[in-house]
């Protein structure tokens, strides 16, 4: 991670390093586990039919399940950031943060950007969570839905790493997962993060609509 070598200068780099380590695997895994179980878990337990008997439409149920997944993912991301900040602060202090461009941020300004990075990291798996919920509606096997979603995330990262497929990566969810690092440039580079949010929004709309 680009922040790893900077932790010794300020403990505020610790939560960013934690995000950079978590984002490629652990966060997508968490989103896959939660979303894969969202509907399929209810179906396998036999409780889905009772939920649908109530005056709650299928669309509303899917959206509620999706929002529950994203709430839990966001809480997990915030927990990673808080633990990283506390551990980093205790070990290395909360000194001023040097940006990737070489300028300096006060501790307060750095914390604002760290919170924004956490929000972007959570939003970065919104599309993957929508895919998981969609797959979850197709099967009664929660493990099967989870595995399918994890496989999608892994294939996305493999395709993103292939240099000879330059036309494909901009349309992959994983291509923008670490774009939160651009918040720590001066000036902030918004372009990749904006593209990432658009791609996530499109995936979310398509797969929640299909669910």
- How does the helix and strand content classify structurally? mainly alpha
Number of beta-strand segments: 2
- List the secondary-structure elements in sequence, H or E: HHHHHEEHHHH
Mean pLDDT, rounded to whole units?
86
Shape by Cα distribution: globular
Low-confidence runs: none
The residue fraction in helices comes out at: 55-70%
| Count of domain modules | 1
Strand content: under 5%
Spatial strand arrangement across the major sheet: 1-2
- For the termini, the CA-CA separation is 36 Å
Radius of gyration: 19 Å
Task: Output the number of helix runs.
Answer: 9
Main beta sheet, described? 2 strands, antiparallel
Characterization of this structure:
With 211 residues, the protein is mostly helical. The protein has one domain (4-210). It has helices at residues 13-22, 26-38, 40-45, 48-53, 58-92, 107-123, 126-136, 142-161, 191-210, and strands at residues 97-98, 104-105. The protein has a two-stranded antiparallel ribbon with strand order 1-2. Helix 1 (13-22) crosses helix 5 (58-92) and helix 7 runs parallel beside helix 9 (191-210). The longest helix is centred in the middle third of the chain and has 35 residues, at 58-92. The mean pLDDT is 86.
């Amino acid at each position: 991670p680009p922040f790893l070598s900077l932790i010794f200068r300020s403990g505020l780099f610790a939560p960013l390093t934690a995000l950079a380590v978590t984002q490629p695997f652990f966060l997508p895994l968490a989103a896959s586990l939660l979303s894969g179980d969202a509907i399929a878990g209810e179906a396998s337990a036999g409780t889905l039919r009772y939920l649908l008997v109530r005056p709650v439409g299928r669309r509303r149920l899917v959206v509620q399940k999706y929002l529950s997944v994203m709430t839990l993912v966001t809480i997990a991301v915030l927990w990673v950031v808080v633990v990283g900040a506390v551990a980093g602060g205790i070990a290395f202090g909360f000194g001023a943060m040097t940006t990737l461009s070489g300028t300096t941020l006060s501790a307060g300004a750095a914390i604002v950007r760290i919170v924004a990075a956490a929000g972007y990291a959570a939003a970065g798996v919104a599309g993957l969570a929508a895919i998981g919920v969609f797959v979850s509606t197709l099967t009664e096997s929660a493990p099967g839905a989870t595995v399918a979603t994890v496989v999608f995330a892994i294939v996305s990262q493999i395709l993103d790493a292939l240099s000879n497929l330059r036309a494909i990566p901009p349309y992959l969810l994983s291509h923008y997962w670490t774009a939160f690092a651009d918040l720590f440039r001066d000036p902030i580079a918004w372009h990749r993060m904006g593209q990432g949010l658009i791609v996530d929004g499109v995936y979310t709309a398509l797969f929640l609509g299909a669910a």
